[in-house]
Amino acid sequence: MSFFNSINISASGLTAERLRMDLISENIANANTTRTPSGTPYRRKVAVFRAQEASTFEQMLNNAKGLQTLGQGVEVAGITEDMSPFKKEYNPDHPDADSEGYVSLPNVEIVNEMINLISASRAYEANITSVNTTKAMAMKALEIGK
Prior knowledge:
4 strands; alpha+beta; two-stranded antiparallel ribbon
């Protein structure tokens, strides 16, 4: 594996984790949004990751031979909405209250979102560390030739 492949893999992780942090921030910002343009409360959004597919001819040839190829990084397969039920709160004075006085609130749990944000932040930091380590290895390899 070349130095550039290592950096590309870490870069894909950085991109994916940044999107994950953006979605978590959006979820937190909309934790009290009771009405969206569709008329329903905000639904929590989640990023779905998957391994990147092999794209070069050499990797496809190795796969056809049954040889194991190294990972190519991560990509976002999609963004899904969490279909768990909305929270109900009794508040008959709220403009979005139903006939019984209950308001449907988003299915966003702030504590869970903060835990996910910490996890995404740590994964982002790990990818940065990997890039920095790869750069340091490349610099040491260049110094050997002096």
